[in-house]
């Protein structure tokens, strides 16, 4: 009987510790744009990203997406990795936004893992670009990102 009380107390302490690291009013957005076939696809990809963001169930009292995305557009930092890879990033107290354009498979995988590791209570991952119809893999210039990759990231996390 005493051992079950000790175990119960440890479980309660662990859950309190886990929720302390979790920020209920923080949002994280990761957009990964894979390979595109033509310049005309840019508009279609933009619409898909917008549709994904608009479908995000966000409490507008704590995160005004229009305001924070405008802030992202005007204050983001850009880094260029090589072979056309770009990373746009901006972090505020409320919204952490990152856009990867033509990333490598390794970078996409590590940033998706990092998204799940963040303290944010609300997370959105948008994958867009050319994909393989049968498997759903998003194609990059080097490698691809599959539903299996995402499953692995979630189970590892």
Automatic annotation (TrEMBL):
Residues 29-156 form the Microtubule-associated protein 1B/S N-terminal domain. It comes from the Eukaryota. InterPro entries: MAP1, MAP1B/S_N. This is Microtubule-associated protein 1B/S N-terminal domain-containing protein. It comes from Xenoophorus captivus.
């Amino acid at each position: 009987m005493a051992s079950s009380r000790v175990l119960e107390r440890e479980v309660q302490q662990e859950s309190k510790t886990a929720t302390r690291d979790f920020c209920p009013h923080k949002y994280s957005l990761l957009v990964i744009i894979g390979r595109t076939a033509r310049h005309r696809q840019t508009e279609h990809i933009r619409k898909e990203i917008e549709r994904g963001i608009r479908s995000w169930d966000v409490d507008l009292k704590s995160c005004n997406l229009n305001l924070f995305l405008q802030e992202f557009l005007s204050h983001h930092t850009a880094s260029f990795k090589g072979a056309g890879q770009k990373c746009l990033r901006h972090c505020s107290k409320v919204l952490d936004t990152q856009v990867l354009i033509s990333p490598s498979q390794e970078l996409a995988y590590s940033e998706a893992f990092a998204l799940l590791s963040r303290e944010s209570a609300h997370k959105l991952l948008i994958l867009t670009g050319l994909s393989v119809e049968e498997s759903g893999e998003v194609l990059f210039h080097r490698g691809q990102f599959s539903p299996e990759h995402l499953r692995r990231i979630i189970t590892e996390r």
